[in-house]
TrEMBL record:
It comes from Escherichia coli. This is RHS repeat protein. It holds the Pfam family RHS_repeat. InterPro entries: RHS_repeat (IPR031325), YD (IPR006530).
Length: 72
């Protein structure tokens, strides 16, 4: 941006997003299952979001950073 700050991202060799560092320097780390689906996002502030999938790989639940769970 105009202040010289930058956002950076890192990727695994399989093309999965691993980390995002925002312009303020905060890092969000991403976890994936063996099928490559994102299972969790962990923010530097200690907040996490989780995702669950069924045996066919379909999203069945999300737990947000406040701990609220939504099932599909």
């Amino acid at each position: 941006d105009a202040t010289g700050s930058r956002k950076t991202m890192t990727w695994s060799r399989y093309g999965q997003l691993l980390t995002v560092t925002d312009c303020s320097g905060y890092v969000t780390r991403y976890d994936h299952d063996r099928f490559g689906q994102m299972t969790a996002a962990h923010r530097e502030e200690g907040l996490s979001q989780y995702r669950a999938y069924d045996s066919r790989g379909q999203l069945i639940a999300v737990k947000d950073m406040q701990g609220h769970e939504t099932r599909y």
